[in-house]
Each structure stands twice: as structure tokens, then as C-alpha cells.
Amino acid sequence: MAGRINDDDVKAVRDAVPIDAVVSEYLQLRSAGGGNLKGLCPFHDEKSPSFQVSPSKGLYYCFGCQEGGDTLDFVMKLDHLSFSEAVERLAAQAGITLRYEEGGYNPGRQQGEKIRLVEAHRAAARYYAEQLGGAEAEIGRKFLAERGFDQAAAEHFGVGYSPAGWDHLVRFLRGKGFTDKELILSGLAQDGRRGPIDRFRGRLMWPIRDITGEVIGFGARKLREDDNGPKYLNTPETPLYRKSQVLYGIDLAKKDIAKGSRAVVVEGYTDVMACHLAGVTTAIATCGTSFGGEHIKILRRLLMDNSGAEVVFTFDGDAAGQKAALRAFEDDQKFAAETSIAITPGGMDPCELRLAQGDEAVRSLIDSRTPLFAFALRSIVSGYHLDAEEGQVAALNAGVPVVARIKDRSLRDRYATRLGGMVGLTSPAEEEAVRRRVHALARSYERGTPEPALSGAAPGRGPQGGGRGRQPEPQRPAAPRGPRLDLRSPAHRVERELLKLALQRPDLVAPVFDAYGADEFTAAPYATVREAIAEAGGTTDADAGFLTRAREAAPDDTVRSLITELAVEPLLTRKDPDDFYAGTQLAAVRLAAVDRRIGQIQGSMRRCEAGGDMSAYASLQEELWVLEQYRQDLRNRGAAAL
Fold it and tell me: pLDDT tens-digit profile of 430-439?
């Protein structure tokens, strides 16, 4: 049984790896003011950033889906790791050697499963890269050279070679301490008659990395005629590798994608290499699957969905390439970014184009891109006989659904006019009729009614020939994970602000805050947060571990999430908070508590008077007088009266 990681080592890992550095490996962050950063949430789809990171607190929180936590929580949730696996991954990044209790330190036995699989892939990538220099790999080096890639290019992308024998890699990894079970689970090996054998044999190898740069799989290219396998063989689905969630080259391209707000999607490993070497360093590719929703999520987090962002798809100029481009159109509206198409000349892919015409031709290909809407309209309309009125009507029927799906209304109007001109309807009255049809269909889409499928606009169909596509699934709001609070209530609003100060700037509210009881917070969840702060040691002695202790003191995940939210949410003041601002919140909460107590006493006095209990009445009257004096003092002097 694996030992427990030493608590001091866990704290050292939390302190050593800044949360913004970890989160930035997965998505683009921008300033949110007040020292916080913001980006598109990686845990749910959203159009505007509601995900915030507080580097000073070491916490993140999404105000859209209520996911929040510290650096370890982020890695655990996004990469589906256990707590120990997350600690081990970050410890490896920080160069921290972990100590294990209840049995001592034994990394080969005690590290988490996914961490072990990552290490196996890392070792395999090094092994394959070394083999590329051997005599057997001459055929692989020749393949690369024929496509314009030298040794430096191979090293930059980590290209390697898998020997043609049955178990070369298996024996190598066994020597590194990996078990047969781990080799099978990783997809690096498969079951043979006498035990595990290498999955990849006699092939050119491309390491496939996740967005953080870790090798999670391989793409293997066939080199010999006697190899009866497919041209390209990829790692099977494993705990690390999900082909629908992987983009080849994303680790190399992510910084330039975020910096330049542009991504270029190509179709293969050699195309990515060619583009990067030609200076198009934002090129990426899918791995044996079509570009889909999970790939879009990865790009959206890097592009931040700003209006100036762009995604460029490259496809061959043949019929298959145009068909693939139209499939890309189906996903266009999931981007706020502009989407364009670059069609390679003569049916060449970017790798062939670079080899034939040089680096400048590859850069020119991307620069000469066509907006996707214009390309889609041209492709659809060109399939109809526009010399006849029937063909014009059919082309119009096919093109209107395309234009109606454009989100930008001004752009939608311009394309409606363009569509009319393309089918031969050029008079002002005809153009206006086309725009009205587009607007009507766009409104139906906004109401969630089914839309005509793009494939229904094939040539030969009459005006009624467009089929029905699938009905778009309405986005369901995320189920509320935290308690619902009436934040319009002034009492709740000021209580929230005071708790935010206690968690974010305990120095401004200590030691007065620590004298406040949980009953001074009228919202039950806020009262529980107050108790958690007390259990964490209070604000007076708050140190670097204060927030962590407060979150650990929460009685359940709901309160823990609320503490994280309060620790990250910006304060309501536009200026940096100071003693005066903190004192105002302290006084407001105390004044509200005094008002409530006065109301309770007055009610009790009426009951005592009605029941004839004058002794109790006199005692309450004395307490009322003291509280009324205190209330007046609070109103006059504010925090100075506390």
C-alpha cells in the first residue's frame, strides 16, 4: 500500500509552484484588476471569462460554474489525477523530493498510476529519439530528409524510431523499473503469446504531448512495404491519451497562439513540422480524428474568444479537402474568433508545398486565407445551375441557412447581400427580400428551433429539398453548487464584503474581526465561513497558510467552495482597500447586529409587560439603554467605537 506524502512536503509543493504558472499552461490569462487574472473557464463552456486566479492567495475560482480551489485542486480536476498524483506531478516540476510516511520512500512502488504512465512515455520518447541515429533507422532518416527535415528538425520535435524487433522497448522499460502491467496500460506494449511486445515496431515515431509538454502518446509512420499495418498507427485510448482531446504541436504553439491570437489547423505531423520551420509557429494538428468540440475547447482557452482572434484551417484543394472544409464550418460558430480557410494549391499539403516552393510559400498560403463564410457560400452556390431561375431559387435556399448562422448581425447583413449577388438577385428589392429571409431564420435559430443541415443543400434539390439537421442542444445552466443567497440584501452584501476582507486582507480587519461571533452574520453560509476562519486561527495570527487552513476547516465542499470564491472575488472598492474601508465594513456588520438585538429586546419587553413580569422588564430595559448608546456611538464614530 502506498505511503502517505509528508504534510510538510505537500505544503512545500503548494508554495513552490505558483498557481498562475500552472494555470497558464492550460489557458491564456489576462489581468482582471486587483492583482487577479482572468480567463475562459476550462471546466465549462463560456463566452466571456468568469474564471479568476489570485496568485497572491494561490487560489482559483469560476464565478460561472463555482469550481474553485488551489493549485493541487486545479491539476486534480483538469487532468483527472488523485491527490497524491497531483502532488507528485508538481513536485517533479519543482524539483522537490517527496517523503512518504508509513513505509518510507519508494517512488517505483508508491507513485500514482498516471504519473508512472507519464514517466514511461517520457522514457520511451528518449529511447526512440536515440534509436533514430542507429543504422537500422537509416530508412527513417531518409524519409525525413526527403520531406525537408534535417537532424535539428527531428530533435526539435522529438522524432524517433522504434526498432523492428518484438520487444526492444519492453526490455528497455523493464530495466527502468516499469512493470508489464504499466507497459500494457500505457499503450506502449500489447499482449503477445509469451508476454508483452512492443506496440510500435520499425516505424518513425512522433511523440504526442499534452498542452503542458508531457508525452502522453505516439504517432507511428509506416516505413517498409512488408509492414502490413496502417500507414499511421497511433497510441490507443489510455488513461493519458484521448485522441479527441489532443492537438499535436499544442505544447510548441500555445505561447504564439495566445500572443498572436491566431491558430493554424493542419492535417498531419509533417504539416505541423513544415509550418513551424517555415515560421508559422501556431500550427497544430489533430491525431487521427476530425477536428471536434474538445479541440475547440482547447483553442478557445488560448484565444480567449476575443474579436481579433482567428482560426485558420488548411485543406487540400481537391474535392475531399473542400468537403473537410465544409465540415469545419459546422463548428465555426463555437468560436468567437474569425474562422478562415486556406486551400493549398495543386492538392499539396503544407509539407509538400514547403518542399516544392519553400518557406515563403507556406507563409503566403496562410496569409491568403479566405473567410470561412465566404468559402462556404461559394462552395454551396457553385453546385447549382444559376442560369435558370429554379437553380437560383435552390441556391438561395441552400445559402440562407449558412448566412443566418452568422452571429455578428452587421456581418450577417453583408453576407446576405453577397449571397443575393452570387445567385443573381441584385436589385434593391431582391436584396432586401434576402435580408428579411436571413433575419427570420436567424431569429428561429435564437429560439432554438431546428436548423437545416448543411448537407441538405446539395445540388439537384429543389426549393423544398433542404433536409432538417439535428436540433441544437440547449445549454443547460450549471446546477448551483453553493448556497443561494439574496445578495441584493444590504446586510448580506456587507457581510460578504467583510468576509472577503478577512480572507484576502486579514491585516486590515484584525484583531477586531476575531471578536465577532458567527451570530453576527445573518446568512447561514456566511456564519459557517466565520467559524471556519476562527478554526483556522483567526485573522490576528494569519500567515501564509491561513487560507489553506480555512479551506480545510470547512465542514463540506459547499462551504469550501464558498471560501474559495470569497478569497478570489474582487472587493467592491475601486481603490486599494485601506483601514478606513475595512473599518466601514466592520462597523456596518456590528451596527446591523446591534439593531437586530435591539429589536429582539423590544419584543421581549412587550411580552414581559403584557405578562406582568416587571423584574425581567427592568433588566431588559437596562440592556436596551446600553445598546442604544452603543448604536449611537457606532453611527457617530464608526470603526472608532468598536
Answer: 889 899 999 9
